[in-house]
Amino acid sequence: MIKTMKNRKSYTEHMKNKATELNNKEVSFVLDLYIQMVIDEALYNYKKNLLEKQINDALDSKDQEKFYEVAAKYNSLIRHVT
Question: What is the pTM (predicted TM-score) of this model?
């Protein structure tokens, strides 16, 4: 009986463990969200820069069709974010 009592945790210890577990889950969620935001921002900037380069290339080569095609993609990307 004495051994069983020693292995049992008090209500306070259980509550502390649950609070710690919940806090760890919240921290993990926030970190995951932050990481996703960083990845999304990097991907957005990559796509934006790529389209800007393609627009400049189309202008340099005086390729009107390519310019309008890429400019439409660029505008769509910008509108989607704002």
Answer: 0.69
